[in-house]
Amino acid sequence: MTSADPTGPTVAACQTDVADLDPETNLATLRERVAALPDAVAVALFPEQFLTGFVPDERMADAAVHTDGEAMDGVRDCAAANDLALLVGYVEDGGGDLYNAVAYVRPDGSTTVYRKRHLWGGELEVLTPGRERVTVETPLGETGLVTCYDLNFVADSAAFTEARVDALFIVGAWPAAHSENWRLLVRARALDGARWAVACGRTGRRDLPDARPATYGGRSMVARPNGSVHSALADAERDLVTRCDPAELAYHRKRVGIYRD
């Protein structure tokens, strides 16, 4: 565990490997990791496509889950049992189309879904892009939801800046070979709107029969509203637990002056 400031809401980026095409195993991992978190944690993030994993072929349709289905009910039960919010990535069966989705699940079970708007690589072969940007109210304030390659699109970041969000929650499965790009983009998106950026990355390796292997970088991090690194991990399976002081957000916003008007 890594802790930081003595005040403010506590968030956790639960950096983990993923069992591709195996929601049951991933749900068990979710329960185990959440149960081990400190009581102070108000929100825990898990990586992109965490619940289902991903492979760019027809097998994905069998592993995809419904947002109102049994696997996601397990996520809701976990949020309720541990009295915290969860942000969990998965491939969603949208009733004819598959989406790269992330669900913000509150302790009362209410769920908000964001479908990744900018698909990359093999995702283009089997998934449908989402259409809407999504923000949710979290313990850090109004928060924009961002998935992996979305980080590259400055127009999306500008839209969140226009909306004056206080934080971005970012989930990713970023290739290890390009980890420095991930770190740079997370920091830049924090600075764009003088906001917190909490990023949870997948680590480990995809190694399935008849699928191209992939190694993931991890590199979960929390970036301050001035773009500096507050706390970060390398590629181990660990929890990054950080308190985000609202006074620090206010300080940097005043200093940068981005919202003076």
TrEMBL record:
Keywords: Hydrolase
Top-level taxon in the UniProt lineage: Archaea
Xref: Gene3D superfamilies: Carbon-nitrogen hydrolase (3.60.110.10)
Species name: Haloglomus irregulare
GO molecular function: hydrolase activity
InterPro entries: C-N_Hydrolase, C-N_Hydrolase_sf
Domain named CN hydrolase: residues: 9-251
Name of the protein described by the UniProt record: Carbon-nitrogen hydrolase family protein
Keyword check for Membrane: no
